[in-house]
Design brief:
Structural class: alpha/beta
CATH topology of one domain: Rossmann fold
Number of strands: 10
Order of helices and strands: HEEEHEEHEHHHHEHEHEEHH
CATH architecture of one domain: 3-Layer(aba) Sandwich
Distance between the termini: 7 Å
Shape: globular
Bound molecules: adenosine-5'-diphosphate
Number of helices: 11
Strand content: 15-25%
């Protein structure tokens, strides 16, 4: 069903405050974290992304919106080479990550996926692992053995994911014993434990109830002071609440990219206007 187009005033206020900050994402002189240049992507014969060019700025939340099937998730996967795990994909164009060709010779996709972490729609804690092990598993895989370092990083990540107080006495319990919203925050703790530079989120709250969703949205805002965040959402209110800038995709193309407030209140393109006013979904 189409989401309503009216952006709650409180949501706009929080995004205004963000836009007013001097270190705002909108500072034009900031060097982009990602420079996406003329990227197209196919699954077999089917083209999912068409000639997308966009710069993503550091320590900002970029929302990707658009109707189902318009290529939002595919675009996200181009930013950490996740699409390469899907058979029969082909990409053209270029993605620079901090000025370096993400797809260049000698670039290890597993290293990229550590620097550019990802959170999925459905939380996916490792079912046989405790809460603690779920958070530090990535560090262990990267060779960190020092117990003190692991414990410090465990607490720091859980605190950053706003979960520490809820689980500090249950660290040995299974990760899957937590509620849905807690499991998603556990996955966020796991993603940030390896200290990525970017966190990609694909509909991170769409399976959660309103209170758990609110917690995730608060968390996204908090994390944005340290991380570059790109979030796919079909929920326009959510985009307006959490993001600094918004990209509207339609049928594989990037139609409009602007400050969130401007895109929702004064879109330049008719297709954007039709979408945000609920004429199609
Ligand atoms: P969105 O995230 O906006 O819903 P997607 O990026 O998931 O859109 O999909 C874009 C297009 O690519 C859709 O037509 C979808 O059917 C197709 N697609 C997505 N994933 C795959 C896949 N693994 N194999 C084949 N086609 C896919």
């Amino acid at each position: 069903m189409m989401e309503g187009s009216v952006i709650p005033e409180t949501a706009m206020r929080s995004s205004e405050q963000i836009l007013e900050k001097p270190e705002s994402a909108i500072v034009e002189t900031e060097k982009p974290v990602f420079e996406v240049k003329d990227v197209s992507l196919w699954y077999g014969d089917k083209q999912a992304i068409k000639n997308v060019t966009i710069d993503l700025l550091p320590k900002a939340v970029t929302a990707i919106i658009g109707p189902s099937g318009c290529g939002k998730s595919t675009f996200l996967r181009c930013l950490n080479r996740m699409h390469e795990l899907i058979p029969r994909t082909r990409m053209t164009g270029q993605v620079l990550f901090r000025g370096q060709d993400l797809y260049g010779a000698g670039i290890d996709p597993t290293v990229i996926r550590r620097r550019v972490g990802m959170i999925f729609q459905k939380s996916n804690p490792f079912p046989t692992m405790s809460i603690a092990d779920n958070v530090i598993v990535g560090l262990k895989l990267n060779g960190v053995r020092n117990r003190r370092v692991l414990n410090e990083r465990l607490e720091k990540s859980l605190r950053m994911a706003a979960l520490w107080d809820e689980v500090k006495n249950d660290l040995d319990k299974p990760g899957v014993s937590l509620s849905g919203g807690q499991q998603q925050r556990l996955c966020i703790a796991r993603a940030i434990a390896v200290e990525p530079e970017v966190v990609l989120m694909d509909e991170p709250a769409s399976a959660l109830d309103p209170i758990a969703t609110m917690k995730i949205e608060e968390l996204i805002r908090q994390l944005s002071s340290d991380y570059t965040i790109v979030i796919v959402t079909h929920n326009m209110q959510q985009a307006s609440r959490v993001s600094d800038v918004t990209a509207f995709f339609y049928m594989g193309q990037l139609i409009e990219f602007d400050e969130t407030r401007r895109l929702f209140t004064n879109p330049k393109e008719k297709q954007t206007e039709d979408y945000i006013t609920g004429r199609f979904g």
